[in-house]
């Protein structure tokens, strides 16, 4: 499988998903949009994975490439109809590109959290084998406020009603971070925008304790990522490559 990964920050890559894909022998091409790299021809790829980042989807004046990226996502999903995976900003970009509304939350959601599957989520192949809820890792201050017209909301919680969604048949987005790995918290703490949201959400003491709390849950988060990747491959008709 040929995977195109769009990144918006060097320390916010596909994490455990990338490790799984590499172990499976897939071909991965990474484009750093924040460094001015151009999106290659979309027809050359089987899967588009769009990761997180500190910018917001509406900041096109500061980051003009966001407009091009949303156009690429819209074409990928609506015209090419190929598998899409969006995480955090990538989830929000999917919503914005397809006509949904993305905006700031009342306050950032950072740290360990729990999300509940909706009725659509319980039926969707993405969450086959999961229970009614799952523990997740969060780090965001914006959210999909109104999903696109054809979207199915698959997971939710009180802080953010659109925690996971499917648009059409093949496009999935996660607001939470299934891809978290051992160095994630330490890497993201050094990003000024992320540090600000971390301390605002958890306070200085909670910010200092987050790394250890996440480390203790890494086996669970890795198992979740592996199950989601298997389910995504099956939903996309790519199970034979997993």
Automatic annotation (TrEMBL):
Query: Per the database record, which ranges form the Glutamine amidotransferase domain?
Result: 41-183
What does UniProt give as GO cellular component?
A: cytosol
Q: Which domain of life is it from?
A: Bacteria
What the entry lists under Pfam families is as follows: GATase
Q: Which residues cross the membrane?
A: none
PANTHER family xrefs: GLUTAMINE AMIDOTRANSFERASE YLR126C-RELATED (PTHR42695)
The entry's protein name is: Glutamine amidotransferase domain-containing protein
Say which species the protein is native to.
Hansschlegelia plantiphila
């Amino acid at each position: 499988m040929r995977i195109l990964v769009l990144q918006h920050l060097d320390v916010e890559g596909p994490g455990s998903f990338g490790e799984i894909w590499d172990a499976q022998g897939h071909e991965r091409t990474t484009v750093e949009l924040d460094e001015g790299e151009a999106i290659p021809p979309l027809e050359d790829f089987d899967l588009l994975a769009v990761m997180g980042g500190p910018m917001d989807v509406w900041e096109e004046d500061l980051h003009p490439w966001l407009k091009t990226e949303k156009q690429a996502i819209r074409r990928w999903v609506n015209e090419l109809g190929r598998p899409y995976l969006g995480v955090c900003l990538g989830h929000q970009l999917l919503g914005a590109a397809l006509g949904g509304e993305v905006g700031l939350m009342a306050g950032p959601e950072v740290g360990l959290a729990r999300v509940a599957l909706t009725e659509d989520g319980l039926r969707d192949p993405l969450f086959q084998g999961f229970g009614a809820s799952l523990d997740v890792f969060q780090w965001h201050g914006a959210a999909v406020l109104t999903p696109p017209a054809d979207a199915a909301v698959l997971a939710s919680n009180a802080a953010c009603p659109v925690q996971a969604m499917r648009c059409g048949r093949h496009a999935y987005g996660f607001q939470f971070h299934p891809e978290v790995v051992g160095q994630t918290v330490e890497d993201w703490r050094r990003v000024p925008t992320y540090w600000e949201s971390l301390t605002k959400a958890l306070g200085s003491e909670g910010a200092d304790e987050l790394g250890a709390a996440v480390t203790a849950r890494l086996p669970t988060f890795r198992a979740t990522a592996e199950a989601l990747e298997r389910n995504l491959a099956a939903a996309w008709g790519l199970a034979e490559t997993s």
